[in-house]
Write a structure and sequence with these properties.
Layout lengths: L1 H24 L2 E10 L3 H8 L6 E4 L6 H11 L3 E7 L18 H14 L5 E6 L7 H14 L2 E4 L8 H7 L4 E3 L2 E2 L6 H18 L1 E6 L3 H12 L5 E4 L1 H5 L38
Parallel strand pairs: 1-2, 1-8, 1-9, 2-3, 3-4, 4-5, 5-6, 7-8
Helix pairs in contact: 4-5, 5-6, 7-8
Amino acid sequence: MAVLLKSAVKIFIVFSLTLFSIGAFSQSKLAIVIDDVGYHPKEDAAIFAMPREISVAIIPVAPYAKVRNQEAKKQGRDILIHMPMQPMGQMKIEEGGLHLGMSAEQVAQRVQQAKNVVSYAIGINNHMGSAATADSTLMRHLMSALRTQHLFFLDSRTIGRSVAGKMAKEQGVRSLERHIFLDDSNELADVQRQFQAAIQYARKQGTAIVIGHPRKNTVAVLQQGLRHLPSDIQLVGMGSLWRNERIVPPKPFILLFNDTPAPTSIAPYEPIPLLRGVPK
């Protein structure tokens, strides 16, 4: 009877773990990138206190760029270069950015300068750049530089007719694109709505890439949302998507144990010095 009971318990545990494994495989991925890191210590600190799966995009000329680069690396957090790029309007961009008409050599030089500051970056995404990402020549130059630096490109999709993904494929560079902007509107209710939209997008498409900024309401929504993240959603870093990693469930712990009875559980029982609770 005891043997049958033991077998039944073992079967139940293995069955439960199998169901857990199936559930793990059905998880959807949520990747969150926080742009504009490197300017405001208080807001940056709130982001860096979040799970390390939250990726950060650092503007190379920001006053705290090098510090944030080191801090993120120490935390094991994925880092992107948030590269200023020419927009459609007349808005000025930061020094070291990319402009239409640049040569391949100039683009490569700007990417190298950015990488010298944000040295642990694994990829680049565009800061503004509605004009830049729609320009085939500039994007071809950029992707060539990224291939040399072994960086991937995350298209922030600031314009619908971006050709960045097409040029990346042409140059053999891995590219990804943003699906949801978290805080186009800074109103708390709007940010909350966008976070829920990201959850639904991940469930429907399997993966959602979200971009936000180090702002008060964005921080509040992320703190609350990540604390209560649904069990079918897995938070991942951008590096995981870049490497195309699969969700792998943990191995059932039952397989790690030998089911041979311990010597002290077999009659006749022998007391052993220094062991407590051994029957006599």
